[in-house]
């Protein structure tokens, strides 16, 4: 289950308001993309959902339960960042196993889950290497693997491909979409890249200065943008 509801959520940093009151419903299993220009509040919104920032007012519910007092590690969400944050001294296998070790699973259970993630992500060829011996795309797969083994209710991606070159981004885009089809887990994916949004999303949330300008499927937004900002951003002919 990965249903996430934001009700009248706001966020201030000091006296600056970056998220005005915002409502959003994310259904279980949806692939939702937050898209908008740099500084519009995408990462802040994701961090609020993850619990890495506290809301200033309003409420976030995960699977119908108020998340206000639930710490990040207990929210059942796994975050994948653009910086991979892998442990350089550990093999791929150990990097992926690490959260499971912390959670106190038996070695048997750990091996099973790591092998399953390695298969989904095609990591077998480099499972015993260290991060320093991997390409950017391989590192990103390991970071996703570390999220998968936790079997989260939702994956939160913050511009996970922005450090990769153009060809690899296209590849990884397809891989993440395939992963979603396979796992059917809720995914929230932040990007400033319109093409990623249009090709990956079930539902696009277009943000501008913390405001939701429009929510809809790629086709809906393309055919019926509510304003010129959305039209310009999505690249529709209106
Ligand atoms: P995006 O991810 O869309 O580029 P962010 O969510 O990072 O945007 O930032 C939204 C706004 O909030 C920006 O104006 C940014 O400067 C501001 N901001 C983000 N984090 C902080 C923080 N910790 N302290 C103060 N201002 C912040
Ligand atoms: Mg950001």
From TrEMBL:
Entry keyword Ligase: no
GO molecular function: ATP binding
Presence of the UniProt keyword Transport in the record: yes
Keywords: ATP-binding, Nucleotide-binding, Transport
Name of this chain's protein: ABC transporter ATP-binding protein
Organism: Pseudahrensia aquimaris
Every ABC transporter domain range: 4-234
Family stated for the protein in its record: Belongs to the ABC transporter superfamily.
Domain of life from the UniProt record: Bacteria
């Amino acid at each position: 289950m990965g249903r996430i509801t934001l009700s009248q959520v706001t966020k201030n940093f000091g006296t600056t308001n970056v998220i005005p009151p915002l409502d959003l419903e994310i259904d279980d299993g949806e692939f939702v993309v937050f898209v908008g220009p740099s500084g519009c509040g995408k990462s802040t919104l994701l961090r609020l959902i993850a619990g890495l920032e506290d809301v200033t007012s309003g409420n976030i519910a995960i699977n119908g339960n108020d998340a206000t007092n639930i710490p990040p590690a207990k929210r059942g969400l796994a975050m994948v960042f653009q910086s991979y944050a892998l442990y350089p001294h550990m093999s791929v296998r150990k990097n992926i196993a690490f959260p499971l070790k912390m959670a106190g699973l038996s070695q048997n259970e750990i091996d099973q889950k790591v092998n399953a993630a390695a298969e989904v992500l095609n990591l077998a060829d480099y499972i015993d290497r260290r991060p320093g011996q991997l390409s950017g795309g391989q590192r990103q797969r390991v970071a996703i693997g570390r999220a998968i083994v936790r079997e989260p209710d939702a994956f939160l991606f913050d511009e996970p491909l922005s450090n990769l070159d153009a060809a690899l981004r296209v590849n990884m885009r397809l891989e993440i979409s395939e992963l979603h089809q396979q796992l059917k887990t809720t995914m929230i994916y932040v990007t400033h890249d319109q093409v990623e949004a249009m090709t990956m999303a079930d539902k696009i949330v277009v943000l501008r200065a913390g405001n939701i300008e429009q929510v809809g499927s790629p086709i809906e937004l393309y055919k019926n943008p509510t304003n010129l900002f959305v039209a310009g951003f999505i690249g529709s002919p209106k």
